[in-house]
Design brief:
Strand order of the largest sheet: 6-7-8-3-9-10
Distance between the termini: 34 Å
Radius of gyration: 24 Å
Helix content: 25-40%
Strand content: 15-25%
Shape: globular
Structural class: alpha/beta
Number of helices: 18
Number of strands: 20
């Protein structure tokens, strides 16, 4: 039976989940307009849309996490009235969140026992007996992990697999996965998709929220699209759609090109103007709690160049960014910025010389969510707003500078006084770009700059990085997204086990780079 035939046959069957006029509002904001749709059993359904389209609001309402403003749910033919997490789990529906929920300080067995609908312990039990019981569940799920391991010590891929195992231990028949590929390496995505296909073969129905259209077309049997809180495409067989059609439905217009489809642009900086903007020479660090030590890392980024760093997360990427930005001292070797040894300089001193950084996590590192927008934009460069021969800052000048930067980067906001935490993910990333790039820096470190962003926001970030490159800036791009690296980089190096491996020039070989990332022998 072909994929199209299977999808068409399943569509005729009774829906495993059916929603009628589900609406979600937060205060006065209507996140999801009344929406009706149904999901056929035994299929992998994709739900796509921009940030703020209503995808997560729909998923959380379906999972009983938020109470819908109106509407009705039917799961396995039974209505879930004012559904709660416990009720929908009992009906066979569960969710795996993008940010994992298992307590990091717990052992695997303790965490699964705490959150799973299936319990192995009673009022009195021993931890050894609990570990033995959950070991059988882990083996049945195909997971090679000790039930005594701490959640915080597990690789991201293993932690995600545990979240799936936790849901399936409660006999979930309909599983929602919110952005499950966001933190995975290319090989990790392949293994996840193989697992999802296996679950489909076992009769589990899956609803997967994704941003990358290539992944949608690879894994989904049907695709539904939300835009602006409205359903613009009900579940439709993916074989009937193209990436171009999906792009148009997602953003409301037909884009000039699908992401990654246009040829890579060559650096436009004349050779006479070239020079090394940022470099590390045999740089080493001490081992951290989360990553291996960097060992003799050397790299150099020229003006008008984007150097991509590929690698499975946890192989030294954060340490590399930290030594270049001055947040971590080098144990050996040196760091150079615009020809000057800056190894002993602080982050703020390097910033004054022209170095800027888009950090890994916009929520915890990139912004203070409780501070107003104007402070978030200007606080890192506060000294330049100091009144001449006075101790206090020129607040009026800071506000004017913030307003101009936010306008330049098209940040959508209500007031300069609103907290940064009120912005959407895409607008928060634009704010960070406004702060870091408004002054056209000579060197930029961009760490996972589009993680979790939708199609349009990703395109905007790519345009900003290209513009900086074409203006003569040198960029270090650290990303787990190979498509992003291939689309933007002039060359790529792989970071594995704290060491930089080779240099890959275009045209990039996905298999060769993927093998280098995991140490595979061809």
């Amino acid at each position: 039976m072909t994929r199209a035939t299977a999808t068409a046959t399943a569509a005729k069957a009774d829906a495993i989940v059916r929603c009628e006029n589900i609406a979600v509002a937060y205060g006065g904001f209507q996140a999801l307009q009344p929406t009706s749709l149904a999901f056929a059993p035994g299929q992998i359904h994709a739900l796509v849309g921009q940030n703020g389209a209503g995808k997560t609001s729909f998923a959380r309402a379906l999972a009983g996490i938020v109470t819908p403003q109106s509407g009705r749910f039917f799961i396995n033919g039974r209505e879930a009235r004012a559904p709660t997490v416990r009720q929908v789990r009992q009906l066979g529906l569960d969710i795996v969140h993008q940010r994992f929920t298992l307590p990091p300080s717990f052992t695997v067995a303790e965490a699964l026992e705490l959150v799973s609908a299936k319990k192995h312990g009673g009022a009195f039990f021993s931890f050894n007996a609990l570990a033995r019981s959950w070991l059988q569940e882990l083996k049945a799920a195909g997971l090679e992990v000790s039930p005594r391991a701490r959640i915080r010590d597990l690789p991201i891929e293993t932690a995600q697999s545990l979240e799936i195992a936790r849901a399936l231990a409660g006999h979930a028949q309909f599983l929602i996965l919110d952005e499950p590929t966001a933190l995975l390496s290319p090989s990790g995505v392949e293994r996840l998709f193989a697992r999802l296909r296996q679950l489909r073969a076992q009769g589990v129905t899956l609803l997967v929220i994704l941003h990358k259209l290539r992944e949608v077309m690879e894994i989904a049997d049907t695709v539904a699209v939300l835009r602006g809180g409205r359903l613009v495409l009900p579940p439709t067989p993916s074989v009937q759609l193209s990436q171009r059609q999906l792009s148009g439905l997602i953003i409301g217009e037909m884009p000039a090109a699908v992401p990654g489809a246009s040829p890579r642009e060559d650096a436009s900086i004349p050779a006479a103007r070239r020079g090394v903007q940022l470099a590390a020479r045999q740089a080493s660090t001490r081992q951290s709690a989360l990553e291996p030590a960097l060992a003799g890392v050397s790299l150099a980024i020229e003006a008008g160049e984007i150097l991509g760093i590929a690698g499975v997360e946890g192989n030294g990427q954060r340490s590399l960014v930290d030594i270049l930005t001055g947040l971590m001292p080098v144990a050996g070797g040196s760091v150079h910025l615009l020809g000057q040894d800056v190894s002993a300089l602080t982050h703020h001193q390097r910033r004054a010389l022209g170095l800027r950084v888009v950090p890994f996590d916009r929520l915890t590192q990139g912004a203070s969510l409780s501070l107003p927008l104007w402070e978030n934009v200007t606080v890192c460069d506060a000294p330049r707003f100091r009144q001449r021969r006075r101790l206090w800052l020129n607040i009026g000048a800071m506000r004017r500078a913030a307003r101009a930067a936010l306008q330049q980067f098209d940040v959508r906001y209500d007031s300069l006084e609103q907290a940064a935490g009120a912005l959407s993910g895409g607008n928060l990333q634009r704010l960070i770009l406004a702060r870091e790039l408004a002054a056209a820096p000579q060197a930029l470190i961009a760490a996972q700059p589009t993680r979790g962003l939708d199609f349009r926001a990703t395109q905007f970030v790519w345009q900003v990085l290209r513009a900086l490159k074409e203006g003569g800036g040198g960029i270090l791009l650290v990303s787990s997204d190979l498509d992003e690296l291939f689309h933007l980089s002039d060359r790529i190096q792989v970071l594995r086990g704290g060491r930089l491996l080779g240099a890959f020039p275009p045209p990039f070989d996905r298999r060769a780079i993927g093998d280098a990332m995991i140490g595979a022998q061809r």
